[in-house]
Amino acid sequence: MDFDQLKTFLEVWRQKSFSRAAEKLRITQPAVSAQIRSLEKEVGERLFDRKGGKVTFTPTGRVFEPFAENALATQRHMLMMVAEQRHSARGEIAISAQESTSLYVLPEVFTEFKRHYPKVGLKIIRAERAHTLEALLNREVDFGVVSLPVKDPRFTCEVIHRDELLLATPKGHPLTMMAKVDPADIVKHSFLLPKQGRQRDVLLNIFRMHEVYPRKVMEVESGELMKRFVIAGLGVGFLPTINIANERASGTVQVVQLDSIRLPRELALIYLKDKPLTRAVNGFLEITRRRVNVAI
Question: How many structural domains compose the chain?
C-alpha cells in the first residue's frame, strides 16, 4: 500500500468516476483501475461498487476512507517538517489586528508558530478594521484579522473565531437587578462607546432603530480600555465574550442579557488572493486553522 494508491482511492471517491479521477490525476484510466485493484487486494475487500455506471463506497470503502485521509495528512505534515529541517524559513510575517484579538484569540497561534519557525519574525500591528483592510491592499501586512462581513472580492477570508458582544457592567450595577432590559434602559446610564470602527456603527444603528440615544457617552480607544472602565464603574459597554471571560468568572464584571439585541461576531483571517504565499506564510495559515476555535 503506497501514498499514490491512497490518493487515487480518494480521487475516485471525490469524482465518483474512474475516468474523471484519471483526468484529475493525469494518468490513464487503466492505471487508476490497476491501483484500485491492487489496493483492494491488499485490504482483502472491495472498496467500490461499480453498478449501473455509478461508483459508490462499499461498507469497507466507507470505513477505509478516513484512514486514507489521515495517512495523507500525516504525509503532508511530515514532508513540511522535513523541508523545514532542510531549509529553515526566514524573514518576517506581519499581522494587523485589534489589540483584543491579539490578546485573546491568537496567542496560541503565535506561540506554536514561533516554535516551528524560530527564525521567522512576527510583527503584530495594532489597528482598527478600516486601517487593517487598507494595509492589506497596500501590501504592508501579510494577514489581517477583522470582523465579517468583508465584501471585497480581492480578499480570501477564513473564519477563525465566533462569539458575541455582551452588555458588560460593573458588579452590582442597577441594570443587573432588572428582570428585563431594553435599549431605553441602557441609555439612562453612562455608556462606553468605541471611538471608531464597525462595532461603533452597529451600536449606534441599534439605538437609532429604537429611537433612543445614550445621554452620557464616553468614547474609548480599545476594548481593553473599555473593560477597565467597566470594572472601575465608569459606565457600561458591549464587549466580546472572550474579552471578559476571566472577569465574569471572578465576579468583577457582570453581563446583562437583552431580549431585543443579539450581536453575534465572526472574526476572519484575511489575505489578498493574488499575494504569493511563502512557506512561512503557509505555515502560519495551517497553524491558525488548527489552533483557533470557531465554535460559539
Answer: 3
